[in-house]
Specification:
Layout (H helix, E strand, L loop, with lengths): L3 E5 L3 E6 L5 E6 L1 H11 L3 E5 L2 E2 L2 H12 L2 E3 L4 E2 L4 E7 L5 E6 L15 E5 L8 H12 L4 E5 L10 H13 L3 E5 H7 L5 H10 L4 E5 L5 E5 L2 E5 L12 H15 L4 H9 L3 H19 L9 H6 L1
Parallel strand pairs: 1-4, 1-10, 2-8, 4-6, 5-7, 10-11, 11-12, 12-13
Antiparallel strand pairs: 2-3, 8-9, 13-14, 14-15
Amino acid sequence: MRARALVVGESLVDVVRTAAGEESEHPGGSPLNVAYGLGRLEHEVSLLTRLGDDERGRLLRGHLAAGAVSLVPGAVDELPTSVARAVLDEQGRASYDFDLQWRLAPAQLPAELDVVHTGSIGAAVDPGAGQALELLRSWRGRATTSYDPNVRPAFLGTPQQALVRVESFVDAADVVKASDEDLAWLCPGEDVVEVARRWQRRGPALVVVTRGGDGAVAVAGAGAMRVPAPPTEVVDTVGAGDAFTSGLLHALAEHDLLGPAGARGLRALRLDALEDVLRTAVRAASITCSRAGANPPTRAELAAG
């Protein structure tokens, strides 16, 4: 199935400094990465975002065009394009600092969609975050709604304050993907599977938790499923979680589990199908980890394993 997807959230440029002191600039932002990943997997993708009419904004527009992602009209404004400065440690893990402008202009959206995804800073910083939440709520029942908190503590206040906002998005989502690091910050001391179970009982059909080199675990109505990560020679982890998300939504589309027609099947997802979905998403993340930057797989690369 070729899904019709709308992704809502920030677009920015990652200024990446390696442990050796080398610096480079790459397109980034979790929602942008998810949109680009879905485009490379040959889905029909629109991105509702904002970026500046400047050199970095032109870099982002060229990148999105190369991934067959359409910008929703009104995305470009007079403010500078947002920047994330990422510092990589010797294991390729990234820590971030942000210079962000985030708001959404009024936009004419597609009339029909199969999936609406949001998350990260775009679901944390107002006024754009409030707009994203209302949009997710408005599409629920008409499309599969998807959310990834992708926690950035600098924007969220205390974990207790952040959890209130995060769970408002969880309540509006059919599919939730989070990392074990997200849950450790939001719910310190709690078992991540128990948090996933609690969130799943709030309304999502599926809650997935990524666990880095340990793969992923998911909770659905039929129960919990764990899958390992394949052996991977890691170059860096930039964009790995976003590649997982686009791989997850792609796999759900392949099983005809997106959109109103797939809603009942998503609620009744069997464990064998869930295992296949998770293995596809983990494979997408591992391919991204095997090369520099947020460089998710194409459909052919993902199919080849």
